[in-house]
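Service request form, structural biology core

Requester: graduate student, group of Dr. S.
Request type: structure prediction, single chain
Budget code: on file
Notes: please return the result as structure tokens.

Sequence provided:
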Amino acid sequence: MIGMFSKDRSVIGIDVGASTLKLIQIRKQSERAVLETYGELSTAGYSGGEQGRAQLLMDEKVSAMIIDLKQEAGATSTKGIISIPLRYSFITVIEMPDMSDQELAESISFEARRYIPISLADVALDWWRIPEPDPEAAAKKKTASVLLAAIQKDVIEKYKRILTDSKIEPVGFEIEVFSAIRAIGSRIRTAYMIFDIGALSTKIAVVDHGIIRQVHHVDRASQAFSLAISQSLGIDFKRAEQMKKDVGITGRPEAAGVRHTITPLLDSIFDEADRLRSNYRRKSGVTVDRAILIGGGSLMPGLVDYAIEKLGIEVLLANPFNQVEYPAFLQPTLKTIAPSFCVSTGLALRALQQQK
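Core staff response, request fulfilled:
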């Protein structure tokens, strides 16, 4: 962690994960985002559980974590934006008859009822027309592609209350996958996949021209890897978690047992991703030829090489710190933790964009 002087225009991005809380504070300086401080805190100390295990904490515990992490990181801004987990939201792309934006706005709520499984009165609904990048294809197309996103209103109130109880003024909230895309960078003009490997689940999204086209949730992730190692090798969870972090699925002899145990779980995740990728190619004619890994689980040694082997495409670890300025001496440290801070960085960048 680093601590620097905060300015009036500083903002905090807060990513509430299942096993850790991530926080980043940035400010705007000469139209650039400048890193002021960052930090990460395990939920284990607030649940009595073990590090690496997913914990669903009471709201007051989450607020206490934010207060403690702010103090530990030296974050001083009183304005913050928080992530909404994908499991509490709904995202899909629908096709509508081609019409004006005003006509779409009038029609979208009626059409959304067909896709959103709960009453529209209970959700905050937003939508965006997806532009067609090919002018010729756009001229021939008779429908409009629309991205729908919805969050339950009680979930929004829950996360606003968490911030307020942390003595932070809520300046917004956002579904975590949208924050991740912003942190990765909106200038990528080819189709790619995001793998957000958390403690409890893996979120997979297809992104094309900076816009979500498909999203999928898999209930297998970092905690499942450690539990499988523990059961297979007959060791406790703490030792299994450490082995996963130290040797992972590399080709080292001491990693053989871990690799043998974890790869079937990884294969099931990559199989899901292949189905998603094939489905998008069939619908759009666009080939997804790159994958970007984010989340704490993506830091497991050997994972990038294995993903390349299984997916047969370019695979990279995300570095959201490329979107901000920071002292050069921090580069080695930030590089080792960068994928974990994608969502929090994307949130803080959004908050800066909202400043006048």
